[in-house]
Design brief:
This protein is mainly alpha-helical.
Amino acid sequence: MTRPAMSEAALIAGGTLLHASIAALLFLYAGPDVEATQLALRTTARMSFVWFMLAFVASPLAQLAPGPASAWLLRRRRAFGVIFGLSMTMHVGFILRLFMLHAPERPPMVTDADFYVGVPGLLLVAAMTVTSLEALRRRLGPVAWKRLHTTGLWVVWSIFFLCLIDSVGRKTTEHPVTMYYLFIAVLLFGLGLRVSAAARRRRPVAA
């Protein structure tokens, strides 16, 4: 295994271990009741959000602000995506736990839209994660792989955005800025970077 591959594997292992440790601590020390499970859901979702955004902004940052930091992000973009996929697996585990606690009823905070948007999104994340393996990437082919991952990035971005907007209108919290608005602002910042990078790529063609 080459040094870059070892570095990527170490990052994936370390990030996943960090995420799993926090999830386990929440489950063990906060308690397995509904309130604690909802806390674990929020925490794992926000941690997953961080990994996703690192992967989302890596390429446009490398184009708009080339330098050591953006180059480091770009080289580890795949690792961030894999950690995001694995962290979402833990998030799904807490979702299933919430359903078990409310069985046979559906959790009251879960809407039909959560099913129609969330389930396809999770399946897409799973497909992106497994096709990040080099063997599956080669078998899929460069064109199909790029379509899958480009589509997946925008679908996941949209799901995060829609879920946060829905939470602003439907849920109450004492800290709406840190719970919702900050994450919405980060999503819009990432969108701005992607739009700016795309505009810069088109500029020489237009000229």
